[in-house]
Amino acid sequence: MTFAPSSIVGATAWESRGAKVSIGANDGWDVELDIPLGSERLRGRAHVESRDSLAMLHRLGPGRVAYTHKAAGWPSSGYLELGTRPIRLDGGLAASDWTRSQANRITEW
Question: What is the pTM of this model?
Fold first, then answer.
């Protein structure tokens, strides 16, 4: 896994066991994914257009800060395919909660 230096510069990418997800800053975000779901794959690309959002830099404790960028209702376009079934994303809306910090807790997914 690689992390972008911020929500508006660079790319975050994850790859594991035949699955890939990449989110890159590009006047909004470009998203690419290829994920196995059972016997099929979910593949595609999308672009999320930048709009007004909320960005915060806040203190967590001595010598520790957090940066959070929250966005919702941003227009999206692109496509996904689940197996051979197309899923159009044009006209959709996207949301993001991008955070970079050394938190007071451990989050496991």
Answer: 0.83
